[in-house]
Fold this protein.
Amino acid sequence: MKQETIREYRRKLSPLLPRYLRESGKGYRDGMILCPRCGKAAFFWEGRGPYGEGIWRCPDCGSTGDTLDYVMLEIPSYDEAAAVRHIHRTLGMKITTLETVSAGELLRMQLPKQQFLVEGLLGRGLYILSGASKIGKSWLVLDLADKVSRGAPFFGRRTRACPVLYVSLEDTRARLQNRLSLVTEGEPGPVHLATEAELMNHGFEEQLSGFLQEQPKVKLVIIDTLQKIRELGRDNYSYAGDYAVTGALKSLADRFDLTMLLVHHNRKQDSLDPVDRISGTNGISGGVDGFWLLNKRARNSNDAILTVGGRDLEDQNLDLRFDKDRKRWTCLGEHSEGVTITSELLEKTAELAQKGWQGNATQLQAALDLPETDPCILMRQLNAAEDVLEKKYGVTLERSRSSRGRSVSLYRSREAVTDDASDRYRGETDAS
């Protein structure tokens, strides 16, 4: 709504706070109301506002305002326009004017452009990460929180550094401490952690809103898991209920201009469309701005596919691999059903390993004289051919990480089983 429209509604609705409180079941008596911020007794006067409308004030916490301010404190996910609509619906009043903008006006507006928190993977708004139970979702989002808090690359993508709130509701502080020490190597960025929170409609929105008001620099909120904050009740688990949940959380994300990532579970039934694997109705996937879907082909595999999509994202499928020692997911590059490895590449790699070699992916590309091959794709090819390198060529491929970055080592571990390396090897990455 335009600001002049908001001001007009403030004049109209401010004297109606007593009626709103009575009809919403909160009560109003002799000019006394309950403060929406602290719950203590507050006072209401008619004719005390800047336009002669009603205004309330809490002597305990100092909060004050008109009817719109009361509703926005009462329901933190609401902005002014949402508060106007809520008051009208509560009082049975109609908004009879449809607010429009001409195409020419819209084109002339200086609107903010989409800003990515993680380049190409996370923008502003509400996102969901869904995957099977115990697949490694919490490790992934904890690493994401650490990387974003320090402005470090995540999956090789640039990040915008900012403080992070991680609401980890399936962990104790002891378990979270252990996980944090592994992921951050003892040097964490500005990540705020919570292991307990109220349910939605029972205080969670107020908890989150209050924290974000105190920490305005926080621009990434991770909730692990969505199920842990959902209000109980059969009626809430419907399309309308799912959409209401995501709608309330999206309103909060939009109001505070941040990214919110919900961790959720997949349903047990399989589907050709990855989005249909998200547990619940389409009200969940339809109510978010984007999604990350983490899937494995085999339960005991360390490889997975991360499917990414959304309103402002290009559809992507990324090959991931979980490092059990470092407890981190690494991105191997864009997913393809198969990776073709030529005998020429295998022979060059075996020759390079003859005397031992160590370096990063770019240096390996130069050492193998493959200027047309992207270093990331080269590493995917060698990862896919790891078994044949060992069995046919007696070559061991080792990966390591230090303060200088990732590196790879090649060396001959034994004599090759066979000299016949003229055939082509097509290695299929088990990455879903």
